[in-house]
Amino acid sequence: MFSRLAAIPNLQILEQIPLSRYTRFEIGGPAGALADASTEKALIETLRAIRECGLRHTIIGGGTNLIVDDNGFPGVVLRYTARQIQVRGESVEVEAGAALQDLVDRTVECGLRGLETMTGIPGWVGGAIYGNAGAYGHSIQESVESVRLFDGTGIREIGNSECQFHYRESIFKRQKEWIVLSARLRLDRTDAQKLHATAEEILRIRNQKYPVTMRCAGSIFKNLLLAELPESVRASVPEGVIREGKVPSAYFLDLAGAKGMSRGAVRVADYHANLIYNPGSGNAAELRSLITELKDRVRERFGLELEEEVQYLP
Questions:
Q1: Residue 180: which H helix or E strand, with range?
Q2: What is the mean pLDDT of residues 172-178?
């Protein structure tokens, strides 16, 4: 079934591989095949072969925000793994398969300001652009000058405005056939030691909240934009809770009794109402059930619809 793919240069194929090995939750059944393309040519040739053979397929990144079904995915799970980072003055070109942390570390080392608040965020650059990743009031959209992509028929480049960035959103979430290949970033020159100190402090705080050994995706739900909340809800939110024009989902989840909740082995952290983790024996059915229960509670009490940051496969 996958013999044609196996003949493509710069493509690594693993059949019937558990996807739990490739997600932060460490949850999920097997893929029919996991295909890692390390060059643009390999990626495009693989997609062409998949379509011509009529194979079911999906594209993922680093698996940070991915919940894979317990039954897995019967087709091809494709990843673009090119990860080169090139720094030229205040311009940085980075391929989508680079780890976001590697990009942060490289820019901090070079004294380039703009990404230091994202230290400790797991995942790959392609996924960070797809979801407009960010932290501490900043998002990657602020640094993106242009994005190179494969749109299903050819390679093209679009500017920042065409990416249609919004809070944890981009055009790539709507144009599912588009694949981020690389990005050009424009950063500001500053003192590298100050950037390093900022990044170190942020990493210390993040590791206290989301220990690196914890099987979790960070915050499960997006925060809510204050301006988009109903007036009755806005009036009830204490001023001290609001951060950069957003109300943390954890505020509403906490009032709804989320802390410490569980479904099977999957739990909400006792100290953070927007953090769900897998202690080790949890499964996707339990995780999805708990997410649904949390959304139901907030909807019933506040009339608000929480939106997941995580993605589901299938």
A1: strand 179-186
A2: 95
Helix (H, G, I), strand (E, B) or coil at 275: strand
Q: Is 281 a catalytic residue?
A: no
**Crossing angle for the helix pair 100-109 and 192-209, to the nearest 10 degrees:** 150
Which among 38, 143, 182, 219 is annotated as catalytic? 219
* Beta carbons within 8 Å of 52's beta carbon, 6+ residues apart: none
User: What single letter denotes the amino acid at residue 146?
Assistant: S
219 is catalytic: yes
Q: How far apart are CA 76 and CA 34, in angstroms?
A: 6
173 neighbors 106 (Cβ within 8 angstroms): no
Assign 184 a pLDDT band (cuts: 50, 70, 90): very high
pLDDT at 91 over 90: yes
Express each pLDDT in 134-160 by its tens digit: 999 899 999 999 999 999 999 999 999
Cα 4 from Cα 231, distance rounded (Å): 58
H or E element: which one contains 280?
A: none
Hunting for tokens 């797991």 — which residue is that?
122
pLDDT given at position 3: 86
Structural domains present in the chain: 3-80 (3.30.43.10), 85-194 (3.30.465.10), 211-313 (3.90.78.10)
Give the count of alpha carbons within 13 A of 247, CB side only: 20
Catalytic: which of 24, 148, 168, 263? 168
Average pLDDT over residues 13-42: 97
Contacts of 204 (CB under 8 A, 6+ apart): none
Based on the residue annotation, tell me whether 168 is a catalytic residue of this protein. yes
* Mean per-residue pLDDT, 161-186: 97
Q: What does the mean pLDDT of the chain come to?
A: 97
Amino acid at 17: I
pTM: 0.95
SS3 145: strand
